[in-house]
TrEMBL record:
The lineage of its organism: Bacteria, Bacillati, Actinomycetota, Actinomycetes, Kitasatosporales. This is Glyoxalase/bleomycin resistance protein. InterPro entries: Glyas_Bleomycin-R_OHBP_Dase (IPR029068), Glyas_Fos-R_dOase_dom (IPR004360), VOC_core (IPR037523). It comes from the Bacteria. Residues 1-119 form the VOC domain.
Length: 122
């Protein structure tokens, strides 16, 4: 249903370095630069990083990215933490969501809750 989403960030270059690392294990990569904006996707430009247009406090956003398998969730978490992200939840099953929900959560440079999730049984 979602064609694309834009996330306002305080420092586009710093956020781009984070998303370069965190999305690579999920098959995501930079797909377009348009002015100061940077687009990411596996094809197309699903996620856009755009400069914040004011100095007000950022509001937390939750982004969940689909992972092909549990190993990709593990790799996402490791890459994000290596890129400086705070680990909110290490990779694990979340049976309260459903029996095969396997996810990991980190905080990006702007304080957003970023997740990789695999819904497959193994």
């Amino acid at each position: 249903m979602i064609d694309h989403i834009a996330v306002q960030v305080r420092d586009v270059a710093a956020s781009a370095l984070f998303y370069d690392a965190a999305l690579a294990p999920l098959g995501g990569r930079r797909t377009k630069t348009y002015g100061e904006n940077i687009g990411y996707g596996t094809s197309g430009h699903t996620l856009w990083l755009v400069p914040a247009d004011d100095d007000g406090p950022a509001r937390e956003l939750h982004l969940a990215f689909a992972a092909a398998d549990r190993a990709a969730v593990d790799a996402f978490h490791a890459a994000a933490v290596a890129a400086g992200a705070e680990s909110l939840h290490a990779p694990r099953l979340w049976p309260e969501y459903h029996a095969s929900y396997y996810g990991a959560f980190v905080r990006d440079p702007d304080g957003n809750n970023v997740e990789a999730v695999c819904h497959a049984g193994t």
